[in-house]
Amino acid sequence: MPSGPGGKFLDHHLNSPIGIAAGPLLNSKWVEAYSRIGFDVLTYKTVRSMAMPAHALPNIRPVENREHAAIATRRTQIESQPTLAVSLGIPSVEPEVWRRDVRRAKDRIGSGQVLIVSVVGTWAPGMDTEQLVQDYARCAAWAAEAGGDAIEVHLAVPDPFAEQPQLIYENIPLAAQILYRVRTTMPKPVLAKVGVFRTPRILHETATKLASWASGFVMTHGVRRRVVDEEGNAAFEGAGRDRATIVGADTWPLASRQIEEMLSWRKAGAWDRAILAVGGITTVERADHLLREGADAALIATTALFDPLFGVRFRQLRAAAVA
Ligand SMILES: Cc1cc2nc3c(=O)[nH]c(=O)nc-3n(C[C@H](O)[C@H](O)[C@H](O)COP(=O)(O)O)c2cc1C
Q1: 3-state secondary structure (DSSP) of residue 188
Q2: What is the per-residue DSSP string for 62-102?
Q3: For residue 77, what pLDDT is reported?
Q4: Is residue 241 part of a domain?
Q5: Looking at the chain, which terminus has fewer C-beta neighbours within 10 angstroms, N or C?
Q6: DSSP designation for 18
Q7: Is the beta carbon of 222 within 6 A of some atom in ligand 1?
Q8: Average pLDDT in the 252-278 region?
Q9: Average pLDDT for residues 130-158, to the nearest whole number?
Q10: Residues near 203 by Cβ (< 8 Å), separated by ≥ 6?
Q11: Which distant-in-sequence residues (6+ apart) come within 8 Å of 177 by Cβ?
């Protein structure tokens, strides 16, 4: 393994600023495996305050992004530049299981590595805002107690209280309330996971308001789109699954533009928070570009599934640049 170029994330020294976003690392075994092959920022997949099964299979499909929708294809070969539609439903094992397992994950990673635990609140019909906020905070407290170095608060999920469909981070007062409660409930740094913003102005406004309660931002989660198969039928069976999250290669132009906007606002002195770049990073050159622009870390999800040696190649790229 080539040695990493080093890095810094909050108060932690990093072997390298490359990591895995929430999703691929399903439990401590996955965290440990990826920690041995050049990934130093390891995000434990999103967990909940109760067990929740995944949506029915298929729940991940390769897609082509077209004008009116994303089209699920039957392609089965391993892609070098994959784009996926993901409709998993954020499954979770029981808290007693993940709380023990997060501790194991923390024990198994080494120095120069950090463990982020992603959490989400679980809403059920009849619950009010306070109950949802409380659920986020409870989950975050458990994740912190179990050994997460930082807690990622997943805000790119549907806002159950909105009349028009929107995601929680688009409801700034609700997002701020959740982050505030999480931050004041447990002692670890809080990271806000956010998605696509409609305009650069909204991005700036949201980041400025949320910066009071977050130590960093993780973006861009993915792009919500309608997904159909080649015949025009629903690509994912079941109610509420006509839209899914598009991730991977095709999201790069949008995600990288947003990350660069965020980095510019930070340079302009609006606030000083960590920026963890996510979204469409399918080559080591893309990761390198965002890191040189100032991102604190570059995280991959889709590419982690197809190209597990990405972290090793990033180290080789940096070593060659120094030589
Ligand atoms: C298989 C898979 C599972 C994912 N699960 C989660 C999750 O549990 N929580 C979350 O916040 N994001 C989840 N994501 C989204 C990723 O964290 C990331 O934001 C997104 O995939 C964009 O990065 P990419 O283009 O490198 O894939 C998942 C992505 C993939 C591919």
Answers
A1: coil
A2: EEEE-SSSEEE----SPPSS-EEEE-----B--HHHHHHHH
A3: 62
A4: no
A5: C
A6: E
A7: yes
A8: 96
A9: 98
A10: 197, 258, 261, 262, 265
A11: 129, 133
Structural domain that includes position 289 = 7-57+90-223+247-322
- Residue 197: inside a domain, yes or no? yes
Is 0.70 topped by the overall pTM? yes
Into how many domains does the chain fold? 1
Closest-CA residue to 248 (of 276, 217, 220) = 220
Q: Which DSSP category does 293 fall into?
A: H
**What is the rounded average pLDDT of the residues 109-130?**
97
**Best of 302, 305, 307, 310 for a ligand 1 pocket test (most atoms within 8 Å of beta carbon):** 302
Q: Is residue 239 part of a domain?
A: no
Residue with tokens 């590595």: 113
Please tell me the distance between residue 279's alpha carbon and the centre of ligand 1 in angstroms.
9
CATH of the domain at 267: 3.20.20.70
Please indicate, yes or no, if residue 148 is contained in any of the structural domains. yes
SS3 164: coil
Query: What 8-state DSSP symbol labels residue 158?
Result: B
